Structures are given as C-alpha cells and as structure tokens.
Amino acid sequence: MHETVSRAPSTGTHSTSAARPATRPHPFRDRIGVGLAGGFYPAPHRYRLFLREGCPRSLRVRITLDLLGLRTSLTTTVLARSGGSPDALASLRGAYEATWHHYEGPLTAPALCDRWTGRVVSNHTPDILRDLAALPAEDGACPPVLRPPALAAGIDALRELLDRDLAPAARPEAREAALALLEVRFAPREEASAAGSTAPVIPCPSAGGPHVPGPHLPGPYALGGVLTAADVDLWVALGRLEPGALSAYPRLQEYAQRLARQAAFRDAGPTP
C-alpha cells in the first residue's frame, strides 16, 4: 500500500463528472523508457522524486538511487512525517493536479515526477524501482544490475515473503519462521545442506533448474554472489523489526553489518 502524505484540498471548482473517491490514491503507472513499456525519455536531470520520511518504500528507493549512482541525476525531495515541509507538499500537490484534472484524492509517496511537464510519471514503487535503472548514472559510471533477469523470480519471491511475514502486522510465528529460514540461508554450506530438507524454497532460476532452495545459494548476498534488489528489500525489512529482534540470528546480524559497510546502506539509517 502506498504511503499517504496528505489529501489535496478542494480546488473550489466543480467538474461535470462525478466526484472521484478521496479515500483511495489514484495509481499513476506511466513508465520511463523508449520502448513499448515506456513513454518518458530517460534524460538526466529531468525527473524529481518525492519520498517520505520513515516510509519503507521510500527507503528502498533512496538506497536504490545511491546504488545506481543517481543521487545527483535527479532531484529528490523528502516529505517530513509531521507535515513540516509545506512547500514540498505544495509541489507534489501541483504534480498530482497537473496529471489528473481537479485531483482531490490523497497525495502518495514515493512519486516520480517529470519536471518538464510537471506531471506524475508513477506512484507505483515497483515500477519506479525498475525505471530508475533506465536513467544514466553519474559521470558515465557503470552501476550494478539490481534486477538481473535470471534472478527476477527470486527477487519477487523474497519480496513477497518479506511483505507477508516480516511486516509489522505479521503473526509472530510467521515472523520467527521467516527469520529462521533467512538465518539458514547465510549458514555455511554443510550446515545449510543439513537444514535444507526442511527449509522452504525461494524460487530462483539458475542453470541448475527452475528453482533453487534458498539455503543452498552460494555467496554473501540474499540471492547468491551478487548484490541485487533483494538485498535492498531484506535490509529495509530487517530495519523495521523491533530492537533486538535479530539477537537470536547472528548470521543475519553479520549480513546486515556487511551491507552497512557500503555507503548506500550506511547512509540510509542505523544498521538493523
């Protein structure tokens, strides 16, 4: 679910069409790209991102920006939780109203906006995360591929697991089972193999078959030997847990500390 920042006030005018519900954000899902999936050209300095303080989706976008080397390639505006950023909120409201005439629904973030037209490109976080990879990195750098096609299914499966079982509203037994699975994932191969027969499977295409059990993936990252979007998702999910929740999972703690050595994660907030 998107993070609701505020409800846009009435414009004081009347439309001939029926009023649209103000309790549900309107999904804007245009794309950046030059093919069939896109409509906005991936030009540097063209786009502006609105993020929200304390929002896990916004945190995922912020870390991804740094990993892709895009921090100076587009403008980023963070909306304060307390509503202490009226100018930024007015700018976001203007983008929504430019996109949807007489928009009266809630303003949501993350929101990717086009500075050339003043419109919202997308407020759908998965699309935003994927489209950021289409933008040119700073100084012509070669950024990592955070969603390699061979690992896309594993990334989506892990995100589903995290959203379901590590969310604040998750049942305690489901949370403990998910943390135990992830702890085994980072165990040495021999120990992981012994536990693998009872561990759930995280789908992950590979040369060895259509699915690979999570505990048998070699490498220091969530899905093996390379950093992917799955690590961003896992970092953010672990950071939402109660303090001390990882004390019984030393390998997950070590994993989080390892990520914290990278500036993109370290600068995003305290280590889980």
- Class based on secondary structure composition and strand pairing: alpha+beta
Q: Note the gap between the termini.
A: 23 Å
What helical percentage do the residues reach?
25-40%
Give the number of DSSP strands.
6
The whole-angstrom Rg is: 20 Å
Give the oligomeric state: single chain
Strand content: 5-15%
Query: Could you spell the SSE succession in H and E letters?
Result: EEHEHEEEHHHHHHH
Sheet with the most strands: spatial strand order = 3-2-5-6
Largest sheet: 4 strands, mixed
Q: Provide a count of the helices.
A: 9
> Which stretches of 5+ consecutive residues score pLDDT under 50?
5-23, 196-201, 203-215
Mean pLDDT, rounded to whole units? Answer: 82
What would you say this structure looks like, in words?
The protein is of the alpha+beta class and 272 residues long. It has nine helices and six strands. The chain has a four-stranded mixed sheet with strand order 3-2-5-6. It has a two-stranded antiparallel ribbon with strand order 1-4. A hairpin with a 5-residue loop joins strand 5 (111-114) and strand 6 (120-122). Helix 4 runs antiparallel to helix 5. It starts with a strand and ends in a 6-residue tail after the last helix.
SSE blueprint:
Elements (H helix, E strand, L loop, with lengths): L2 E5 L39 E6 L3 H12 L7 E5 L6 H14 L6 E4 L1 E4 L5 E3 L2 H8 L19 H14 L6 H14 L3 H7 L33 H11 L10 H10 L3 H4 L6
Parallel strand pairs: 2-3
Antiparallel strand pairs: 1-4, 2-5, 5-6
Using brief descriptors, characterize the structure shown.
272 residues; alpha+beta; 4-stranded mixed beta sheet; two-stranded antiparallel ribbon; 6 strands; 10% strand; globular
